[in-house]
Write a structure and sequence with these properties.
single chain, ten-stranded mixed β-sheet, 23 strands, alpha+beta, 5 domains, 863 residues, six-stranded mixed β-barrel
Length: 863
């Protein structure tokens, strides 16, 4: 179609030209004069062609495509320049896309349930106290369901409900949850096979189970006849009544089994057993703030009904927090991920500035070409459009390379993410991530090309043709501003990286209260069907310890129900007999066997540790840590004093020793002191075996597990790792933040130095005539070097000053993620002002040396 229109246009123009020429010949003009006159009458045929084509439509798109094709040909003619630009784009877009895919997968990707925005979690909160957010209890659930009108329904989940699966195959520990019957209805998920349990089955504690899709496939080979099959869980037979679909991973993908949540009457009490997760679905049209307002009213009324457990001091009461379910999942890592996204955004901005400097350099090399185009009639707008269209091929290269790099980074980096990172399974490449990569590549290239396009649009032929060294200063102003901005952002990134390094250093200096070197840990849960009495459980632990202690290389071994730094709490109040004014002291409860404190390296401060003489029928004894001892007794001796659980009719326990305080949640948060009972007098079904070894802990893993199998072949062992690994897990999120932000700071430093080198080198090259004249007039080599280095110094000083001004609010934004340092830490503040000038000096030495090679004689002859 277009070829036909072009042909018809040429035929029509030729016909008009021929008619006018023939008429002039008939009037007596010569053939040459007639043709010349005819062309003058018709006017500029090229302009006529362009104006005619504009009436056909799509001409603008055609011109843009032609400009893009021209840009591609220009790129092919400058492979080195193209490679540098493409590498800058690939690195910036690849890193940005990789970080965005993590942020999107964890925080932005909707949960895999219908209308996920209406799903919420409900928490308790004690304003002004230690417990700003804690789980619900059974009474909360019954009251919330009965009195609230904002929710379609509310479900209750007990997450710590693991099962030992025995029978066919190797015994294993399954991560499971006990849930209320209505959870699938709240989430709006139907089983893949079979059914879910009913309210009647929940209230009767029926032995029925629903399997995850992956457990069904992994353990039972996808058996289509699985429904109705009895499987042994904790020594009891449970009937499989359903299999959930593959996308049902509540609350996390690690959960593989769901059983009914039986709530006996004594469980539904105020102030007890805050062990449950409450999940609700808002009614259509109800917002989270509206639900929050209603729940606040319900909790105020509930506090009036139960003042002893729910009314706090200063007129406050235990509140309820209503938040989206997705926010509850991502709360622990939300701040860290936003910091990483901001850091990679800064790095991308520096890359954008660097790209703009490179495009300005290319525009300068094409200044005469652009001036000729302007002289031939190209408008400023037309030149700007051409410059912008020519960089589109760069964005295509950047998008393709960036997506490939991001895919490679994700493939390897996901394995390096902290094990505690929520929703890791959602991280990957999908449509939103690909759209982000393509959009960011277009945005970066177009933004980077705006300044060169503006310069090109203002190009004047006379100024370009009369180019001289005296016009260089004005032309480098844009590059200087870009370099100053690069240096400023680099200062902010280096400052942030230094803050995180200093924080990590402060955290590593924290004494956790135990030793991590040479300590092996593993968990097991005792089946009550096989060991129904507490005495039998304690004796089972003792037999295992006898076997383990007999192994060569074992220094000490013991059991405790929860490891230090596990993040799992079992807390409650205790009363001290000698201090009646100190009621319900908030403490962390643990049960331990003899040998545990020696194995964990927890020091004995006073008195004695547990021994084999502390039996179930002997006087009740306990240990407290030195933090509680100092808080309650000061410098007095607590040995022989008594405490008890702050519940009516609980027996008094004699304090026989004081041990060192340990950290339970993280190295950065010390919440409460500890109280210990002997395992024989306060028995726990789940326990961690702690073994101190002379060699590396990993060398004894198989031998220790073999001793447990010899004692009971059906006893699963799980979560086997060294104490050093527990410590590393605690630091994983902080390590990730520190490493990534520090890497981005180093990368930004390299990009800023490259930009500085490019500007100083280009400017020095353009001023070679000036330098030659100066040397001809008597200037020494040192003076010329100082001129070049002075330019670099001014750019760095201005950039550092701007960067330090921006670093102060950036540090304040990071305050919640810091530990042991202030947001305006002096050491972190001086890192960039010290590092940048040194690196900038080294980068400027090359251009400075080249400037001293200017030949005065050649310069004078040229002038």
């Amino acid at each position: 179609m277009r070829e036909q229109e072009e042909r018809e246009l040429e035929e029509e123009l030729s016909a008009h030209l021929a008619i006018e020429t023939r008429q002039r010949i008939e009037r007596g003009q010569s053939a040459d004069a007639a043709e010349t006159g005819a062309r003058l009458v018709l006017g500029n045929l090229g302009k006529i062609r362009e104006e005619t084509r504009e009436t056909w439509g799509w001409t603008g798109m055609e011109a843009i495509l032609n400009d893009i094709w021209y840009g591609w040909r220009v790129m092919r003619k400058a492979p080195v320049w193209t490679s540098v630009v493409a590498l800058t784009l690939v690195l910036g877009i690849g890193l940005s896309t990789a970080i965005f895919s993590v942020v999107y997968g964890v925080m932005l990707n909707p949960l895999p349930y219908p209308e996920p925005g209406r799903l919420i979690t409900l928490w308790n909160s004690a304003p002004g106290g230690v417990y700003q957010r804690f789980n619900a209890n059974a009474l909360n659930w019954t009251v919330w369901r009965a009195r609230s009108h904002s929710f379609e329904d509310i479900a209750l989940v007990r997450l710590i409900a693991n099962y030992n699966l025995t029978g066919d195959g190797k015994p294993e520990r399954l991560q499971a949850a006990r849930t209320s019957w209505n959870l699938p209805h709240v989430l709006r998920v139907e089983p893949l096979m079979g059914r879910v349990f009913t309210e009647k089955e929940q209230n009767s504690d029926a032995h029925v189970a629903v399997l995850s899709y992956y457990l069904w496939q992994r353990r039972f080979g996808g058996d289509p006849n699985i429904l109705g099959r009895k499987i042994p869980l904790n020594g009891a037979a449970y009937e499989v009544i359903g299999v959930m679909p593959a996308n049902y991973r509540f609350p996390t993908p690690q959960f593989e089994l769901w059983t009914p949540l039986y709530l006996p009457p004594d469980e539904i009490q105020p102030g007890l057993n805050y062990n449950y997760m409450a999940v609700g679905r808002l009614k259509t049209g109800v917002t989270v703030p509206q639900a929050q307002a209603e729940m606040s009213g319900i909790m105020r009324q509930f506090a009036q009904e139960h003042p002893q457990t729910n009314r706090l001091s200063k007129g406050k009461f235990v509140e309820a927090i209503v938040e989206p379910l997705l926010d509850g999942y991502t709360l622990p890592v939300r701040g860290a991920l936003w910091v990483l996204l901001a850091a990679v955004g800064c790095l991308l901005l520096i890359g954008c500035f660097n790209l703009s400097i490179l495009l300005l350099a290319r525009a300068s090399s094409r200044a005469k070409e652009i001036a000729v185009r302007a002289a031939l009639g190209a408008s400023g707008g037309r030149l700007r459009r051409q410059m912008l269209a020519e960089v589109i091929p760069l964005s295509i290269l950047g998008a393709i390379g960036g997506i490939a790099l991001a895919w490679l980074l994700l493939k390897s980096a996901v394995q390096l993410l902290p094990a505690t990172m929520p929703r890791i399974e959602s991280i990957g490449f999908n449509v939103p991530v690909l759209v982000f990569a393509i959009a960011i590549s277009l945005l970066v290239v177009i933004v980077a090309a705006l300044l060169p396009a503006r310069v090109a649009g203002r190009t004047q032929m006379a100024g370009t043709m009369q180019h001289s060294s005296r016009s260089v200063a004005g032309r480098t102003r844009a590059r200087s501003l870009l370099v100053t901005a690069q240096v400023a952002i680099t200062v902010v990134l280096l400052f942030g990286g230094a803050l995180f390094v200093r924080s990590l250093s402060a955290v590593l200096k924290v004494n956790p209260g135990f030793t991590t070197q040479g300590v092996l840990t593993m968990h097991l849960a005792v089946t009550r069907a096989k060991h129904p009495q507490d005495r039998q459980v304690a004796e089972f632990y003792e037999r295992i310890l006898e076997r383990v202690r007999s192994l060569s290389g074992v220094v000490a071994a013991g059991f405790v129900n929860r490891l230090p730094l596990s993040g799992v709490s079992q807390t409650g109040g205790v009363n001290i007999e000698e201090r009646p004014e100190m009621q319900s002291l908030d403490t962390d409860w643990r049960s331990a066997t003899p040998g545990y404190f020696e194995a964990a390296g927890i020091p004995l401060k006073r008195g004695r540790l547990f021994s084999s003489y502390d039996r179930p029928d002997s006087p009740l004894v306990g240990l407290i840590d030195d933090q509680l001892a100092h808080k309650v007794f000061g410098d007095a001796d607590p040995i022989g004093k008594r405490f008890r659980i702050a519940i009516a009719d609980q027996p008094w326990v004699e304090i026989i020793g004081v041990v060192g305080h340990i950290l339970n949640d993280t190295l950065e948060k010390d919440v409460r002191p500890q109280v210990y009972w002997p395992e024989t007098q306060r028995t726990q079904d789940r326990a961690a075996l702690v073994v101190r070894t002379m060699a590396r802990p990993e060398t004894l893993t198989a031998a220790v597990m073999e001793q447990i199998r010899k004692e009971d072949p059906d006893q699963p062992v799980y979560d086997v790792r060294s104490m050093q690994e527990w410590m590393s897990q605690t630091l994983s999120t902080r390590n990730l933040m520190t490493q990534v932000v520090t890497f981005f700071g180093a990368a930004s430093l390299v990009l800023a130095v490259l930009g500085l080198y490019g500007v100083v080198s280009y400017t020095a090259g353009q001023r070679m005539r000036e330098f030659g004249i100066r040397m001809a007039l008597g200037a020494g080599l040192g003076h010329v070097r100082r001129l070049v280095l002075g330019q670099a110094g001014r750019l760095v000083v201005c950039g550092c000053a701007l960067g330090l001004a921006l670093a102060w609010p950036a540090g304040r934004a990071l305050r919640s993620l810091l530990y042991g340092v202030t947001s305006s830490d002096g050491v972190a503040m001086i890192v960039a002002p010290v590092v940048l000038p040194v690196v900038a000096l080294l980068a400027s030495l090359g251009p400075a040396r080249r400037a001293t090679r200017a030949d005065p004689a050649s310069t004078l002859r040229a002038e």
